[in-house]
Amino acid sequence: MRYQTLGDTGLQVSTLCFGTMTFHGGSGFFRAIGTVDQAGADALVRASIDGGINFFDTADVYSEGESEKALGQSLRNLGVKRSDVVLATKVFGRVGPGRNDVGASRGHIMDAVEGSLRRLQTDHIDLYQIHGSDSVTPIEETLRALDTLVTQGKVRYVGCSNWQAWKLAKALGISEFKGLARFDSLQAYYSIASRDLEREVIPLLESEKTGLLVWSPLAGGLLSGKFSREQQTPADSRRSEFDFPMVDKERTWRILDVMAPIAKAHGCSAARVSLAWLLAKPVVTSVIIGAKRLDQLADNLAAADLTLSADELKRLDEVSALPPEYPGWMVAFQNSNRLENVPRIRPQPAK
User: Fold this and answer.
1) For burial by CB atoms within 10 Å, which of 27, 62, 238, 284 has the most?
2) Residue 13 and residue 87: Cα distance in Å, rounded?
3) Alpha helices per DSSP H over 83-187
4) Are the C-beta atoms of residues 168 and 206 closer than 8 Å to each other?
5) What per-residue confidence (pLDDT) applies to 178?
6) Residue 288, Cα to own-chain centre: how many angstroms?
7) d(CA 247, CA 196)
8) Positive or negative, the Cα torsion across 333, 170, 98, 60?
9) 168-215 pLDDT per residue, tens
10) CB-neighbour burial class of residue 336 (10 A; exposed 0-12, middle 13-18, buried 19+)
11) pTM over 0.90
12) How far apart are CA 59 and CA 96, in angstroms?
């Protein structure tokens, strides 16, 4: 296992993060995700730690809070030292019937963090993330609430998830100008089958030294190896029940066609190659993996040791490349010869 710092901080996290959305199951959407009981959760958490993972992600909305409960109980059952793990959870989704039981308002954040701390059985959350883009609450209100939690010691680092590039850029600017805790990470959907993040968000993250945590790296199971042109609705896959996240499937089949011989050459699954492709991206801090069974987790963990060759990465990049889109193609066109034959001006040493 390799480790990287979370964005522009000193906190070191494993490049694979175990996501606990599969814990408990619950009702509605989460019933399709999985129903891992406490014994199963304990086994998966233990195997993750044995595999080098120190980073665990959950959310208050997962299975109506039961995912947080199961994770906290697993760490207690296994006798895991609190300082040996990095716990990340999220706030935003609806957790009750009230008008203010949802969103990123100061009121909801201050209420929700207490519930998460209680369910996780801890006195602090390492990374507290705003789970969605709130179209009602002013950004500064959200940032000030998070800053309060950092000052109180209940939260150590803050992040967001599923935010637009413009909004994240604005939030980072406000934090710098007002002296508030800044977002250290963005949790976002990114996979070889869905590279939309590369248009605006990834250049922003690279510029601002903000970490990227990847959710659904296997495109909701589409890259697991179960799916193909010939087998588009396998009975044992959750995507067959809930077709999410959105993806161009015809493009995905072309990617899997190129990926198949690469996976065969390495004697591994398409899932492992998909994860290794993400781990090769410098902008990626950690890839969140989820599993219902130990064999799934073992296969995902092995991706940390899979190194794809430059030629293999090139082939995968080419087949999965995004179609040109404005203003990207215009920027590339106008800068095509910008640095040709232009000497780099280097600062001279002080005399």
Assistant:
1) 62
2) 10
3) 106-120, 139-152, 165-178
4) no
5) 98
6) 5
7) 10
8) positive
9) 999 999 999 999 999 999 999 999 999 999 999 999 999 999 999 999
10) exposed
11) yes
12) 14
How many Cα atoms occupy the beta-carbon half-sphere of 299 within 13 Å? 20
Q: In the structure encoding, which two tokens stand for residue 30, read together?
A: 């989460």
pLDDT at 103 > cutoff 70: yes
Length in residues, the chain:
351
User: What does the block give as tokens for 290?
Assistant: 């989820």
- Retrieve residue 344's tokens: 């780099």
Beta bridge partners of 23: 36
Q: Is the pLDDT of residue 341 over 90?
A: no
- Residue 12 or 332, more confident: 12
**3-334 maps to which CATH number?**
3.20.20.100
Q: For residue 327, is the peptide bond before it cis, meaning its omega torsion is within 30 degrees of 0?
A: yes
Q: Which of 3, 62, 157, 190 is catalytic?
A: 62
CB–CB of 304/279 below 8 Å? yes
DSSP, collapsed to helix, strand or coil, labels residue 186 as strand
Give CA–CA dist 224/271, Å, rounded.
5
At 175 the three-state DSSP class reads helix
Q: Which two tokens stand for residue 77?
A: 């059952």
Element (H, E) at 11: none
pLDDT at 345: 53
The torsion angle over the Cα atoms of residues 63, 44, 277 and 209, rounded to 10 degrees, is: 70
Contacting residues for 136 by C-beta, under 8 A, at least 6 apart: 103, 105
- Which SS3 state, helix, strand or coil, does residue 302 take? helix
Break the chain into its structural domains and give their ranges: 3-334
Q: Are 273 and 259 in contact (CB under 8 A)?
A: yes
List the structure tokens of 105.
């308002």
CB 74 within 8 A of CB 45: yes
Cβ neighbors of 17 (< 8 A, separation 6 or more) are 53, 55, 56, 57, 88, 213, 286, 287, 288, 289
Token pair belonging to 131: 């789970």
Measured between alpha carbons, how far is residue 97 from residues 27, 128, 337 in Å?
Answer: 16, 23, 58
**Token code pair at residue 233:** 């609705």
The tokens of 328 are what? 């990207």
Q: By the 8 A CB rule, do 216 and 189 touch?
A: yes
**Catalytic status, residue 62:** yes
Q: What angle do CA 78, 84, 89 make, to 5 degrees?
A: 85
